[in-house]
């Protein structure tokens, strides 16, 4: 959604135009969801943040000084709400506990079960290495990569508004971040 369109819709929504409000919600919802996904919240927390961000937007709609930058305001508000949820929640982390793994079918031979469990353990270890090394990247890299792996992927304009990165810097920054991650995984022997 173009900034000038956003500015005009904000002005109309402030004046009570319900269609303008609906257009804002439809046009900016993908941006809000991309910020939520970048923070890897649970579905329940994500929906809570989504609703809170839109509530805050509605509360402050008439006080936004630069209506054409309302998308950036909404992205920042969403980011702040995500951080509040993360700080207040006691997060559970995935486990590598073998008892948590799926049970093996009775149709399998004992040898096949062992091979399957070894392959699952190796895959689990690779994923664990990947996320451990991912967490050692800088905050900006982690945020950018999380947003870019969203489904459906957001546009560079949405990424720019959500993370405050110039559109022309997103591709090069992504390449640098992925190179760092690959180098870390190679150094660890995971690739």
Automatic annotation (TrEMBL):
Protein source organism: Streptomyces galbus
Top-level taxonomic group: Bacteria
Gene Ontology biological-process entries: DNA-templated transcription initiation
Protein name: Sigma-70 family RNA polymerase sigma factor
Residues in the signal sequence: none
NCBIfam families per record: sigma70-ECF (TIGR02937)
Keyword Transmembrane: no
Family designation: Belongs to the sigma-70 factor family. ECF subfamily.
Pfam families (UniProt xref): Sigma70_r2
Keyword Acetylation: no
Keywords: DNA-binding, Sigma factor, Transcription, Transcription regulation
